[in-house]
Amino acid sequence: MPVLSRLFRPLIVAACVAVLAGCAAEPLSPKLRAGPERVELSGVPFFAQNAYQSAPASMAALLTQQGEVVTPGMIEKELQLPQKEDALREGLAASARQRGLLVYPLGDDLDELLEQVAAGNPVLVHLREGIGLMPSWRYALLIGYDRTNQQVLLRKGHQRRAAMSFSAFESDWEEAGSWAVLVQAPNQLPASVERARWLRAADDLDAAGQANAAKMARLQMR
Asked: Can you name the residues that pair with 127 across neighbouring β-strands?
């Protein structure tokens, strides 16, 4: 065996062990471990995502779930893609708010996302895809998880039920900035809602010209 191979072999083995240990780790909080072992929001609509349509298709699914009659093509026009791709997050929020829906931001903790899914709320997320110097970026809907197999389920690309390991999802999500939001009716509170965060989202709804919806959202905090 070459000298370099003998020298580096222990390091490679150690790295592999560390990776496997990380994959086997249980990242969930005690509260989630006490909850459902498996969750899948099978009723969340699905639109296949073509070029420039990961964001429109994901938002169209959320809006359809809230009773709106929309298509990814309609949302794509509203977002003015591909010209305004750099302002997608703002455009997605505006599309929801102009329909009287509240955009509730989530934190950068996988536990928080899975808690919302367990409560019946699909989560809009942004993910990195691919590796190397030219990655791609995709919006997707987190619609389920399997605690035993350490997997999440996504509406992503052309897959209605794309499975990813917890570790792979967290890595791709973190690379894209750990961005995640809910799109809620103003009288539909998220799980473990944070008062200040909800009221800020209500203010944003008010600023978008949806005074009645914002008032309804504020009433939920009384």
From this structure: 138
